[in-house]
């Protein structure tokens, strides 16, 4: 039965260099976290027989799940959650390891400034040109680039196509469908290789939102590639080191300067400049 289930289970990360299953294994980690939490409130380590009584899972199956052999069933995880106080349930789900952030422009990290959110939505609606996102902190750039992708899919009445390349592993944020993610690739030669593999399938898109987040702007001929695509698509470039606006030439461009609020670091301040 195990082999049959594995065969019929779709690999949600099959089109990505960074695999969801191999990279996250959130089901296994959540099982172990819940097991420890239940043991903690029980005051002793539950035996496999006690786990069978509590959630109806046989010893052999439970052992396999703990070792990462097979995915815990949703029903078993829900029954484990039911053994915990409500406050502890929420605490566990709020841990980034299990429930990733889904960046959108209406996210609480941005929605504290409604006027700025409105301007961001206007920029997202552009069907050509370049938007540069820059910040001293790489996570802020990744949040914004990802928010553009998710929000474009939400706001577009025609389900506008969103494509792109992101050198980060989506282990703390929900990835944008059809954006290709890499496992925190930083080396320029590796970035160049991956860029050359995927770029041909992206560059001919018309009216799409194209996300390029990571160190792509350091690649040879990057400016020429961007100028060519930005004539018929909207390109969002995220780079921790900051953009070089002169790369865009006469193509319409916006620069987003991101920073964390001093008194409320979870909030993102955004400066928007048209160039």
What does this structure look like?
The protein has a seven-stranded mixed sheet with strand order 3-2-4-5-1-6-7, with helices on both faces. The chain starts with a helix and ends with a strand. The protein contains eleven helices and seven strands. By secondary structure, the protein is of the alpha/beta class. It folds into two domains: 2-93, 434 Repressor (Amino-terminal Domain) (Orthogonal Bundle); 114-274, P-loop containing nucleotide triphosphate hydrolases (Rossmann fold), CATH 3.40.50.300. Helix content is 40%, strand content 15%. Residues 1-16 and 18-23 have low confidence and may be disordered. Strand 6 and strand 7 (268-274) form a beta hairpin.
Give the strand order, joined by hyphens, for the main sheet: 3-2-4-5-1-6-7
Separate helix tally: 11
CATH superfamily of the largest domain: P-loop containing nucleotide triphosphate hydrolases
CATH architecture of the largest domain: 3-Layer(aba) Sandwich
Shape summary: elongated
**Beta-strand residue fraction:** 5-15%
Largest sheet, if any? 7 strands, mixed
SSE arrangement:
Layout: H1 2-8, H2 20-24, H3 26-42, H4 48-55, H5 59-66, H6 74-81, H7 86-93, H8 114-124, E1 129-134, H9 138-155, E2 162-166, E3 179-181, H10 188-198, E4 209-213, H11 222-229, E5 234-239, E6 253-260, E7 268-274
Parallel strand pairs: 1-5, 1-6, 2-3, 2-4, 4-5
Antiparallel strand pairs: 6-7
